[in-house]
Amino acid sequence: MSAAETDYDLVVVGGGVNGTGIAMDAAGRGLKTLLCEMNDLASATSSSSSKLIHGGLRYLEHYEFKLVRQALAEREALLRNAPHIMWPMRFRLPYQSHLRPAWMIRTGLFLYDHLAKRELLKGSNSIRFNGNSPLIPEITRGFEYSDGWVDDARLVVLTAKAAEEKGARVMTRTRCERAERAGDHWVVTLNDRLTGKTETVTCKTMVNATGPWVSALFRDSLHIPAPKQIRMVKGSHIVVPRIHDEPEAYILQNADERIIFVIPYEDDFSLVGTTDVDYEGDPKKAVISDEEVDYLIGIVNDYFRNKLTPDDVVWSYSGVRPLMDDEGGSAQKASRDYTFEVDAGDGKAPLISIFGGKITTYRKLAEAATDRLCDFFPEAGPNWTRSAPLPGGDFTSQEDLLNEFKTAYPWLPTGLARRYVRTYGTCTRTLLEGCQSMEGMGHHFGANLYAREIDYLTRHEWAVDAEDIAWRRTKLGLRLTAAELSAIQDHLANQPVRGPSASTA
């Protein structure tokens, strides 16, 4: 067999934000693409972020101007491409004179405003806090600036959905057991973890986008030395009842030079994070420690009138970020930039491996990696993703879309309609197709989750179990009881699974 006779042009291993981004971009350029993910989409690092589309204000302190400029430019593009799952957010930075000096903060915010073209977001300014502030009385001054919020897990799922719409085959719960070169092509053995069945495919090129497993894949599946090692850093977050009623997020400075975000979350909660702790072991087993909980709560209590205790934590999550190993230094100073390594030449089938990265620059990373892939496919089309809406994102205003849904579905409660706008955007029309009343939504499982939505998620978004639905397709796990989650799992047991065999070939 020669490369000209292979099943696929490209196999991407890894269903996080980078892997789905590359699969989407490559499929849109005409490359026959397969994406495999050993668990659920966004089941690791990509669903464990601080949920921000941001330039990274604190990266300026480490002189990462190129990264910040690129991230700021991408922030604008992403806010336009997915207005259902991303939106502007205003941040307040309380000032304390014994930490960073005011001139440094003002300089940083000036650079943040001007390093890249800014059209959608307001610039920064100084503010005063009065007696109605949720902050402790000693804090009277601060600064404001703009960034963006994102539902990170849905970003990954919708990117995979866009890849499929462009012709890619998306295989979740499918492990890359082995991949070996056969001259100018790859022979890849895939294992369906739901059925136990294996499938062998061939491809011209491969991408290793497995995040914190990027080096391990070389050892376990490719059986060749890894060109680089990554530094695994655990970042943990806690979710607590809403600390304050204001729409703004807060960015808090700490004496150890770290910053912590306090972000309005899912209407009734506040999201607090993140930590930076070096990590060893299986990334899937990362959990928050008592020390991290105390650290986050301690910083919040230093700033806010409303004091927290560990008993206030209603949910926590930890993710392992695969950062480029810089041979030492603190975890918080490790670079969030990315690189990719190309192994090709001498008649060898090409392999591209992704190291590092951050969610804000995923599209740019994917574009750069696909540009490099296209060196091997001169017939491929041009890059195209910068102005391409993600599925459901073909609208401009959440309020306008909500009003449209109120007219089209007058029987749909406003709160539920608003959640659909912020989750599915215009894909809500597919979810509600043929439905004329709330009775048509099927069984109510709790927290405004109905059988029709669950069935939509299994048919269109690769959801398999209750955890997929409660924590990655939605965040209703914050409101569902254990009994309700069990009922969802029972319902799913009677549904046909959208597995690899049902994906587009």
TrEMBL record:
Presence of the UniProt keyword Flavoprotein in the record: yes
Name listed for the protein in its UniProt record: Glycerol-3-phosphate dehydrogenase
Signal peptide segment: none
Organism of provenance: Marinobacter halodurans
One Pfam family this sequence matches: DAO_C
Molecular function terms from GO: glycerol-3-phosphate dehydrogenase (quinone) activity
Keyword Lipid metabolism listed: no
Root EC class: oxidoreductase
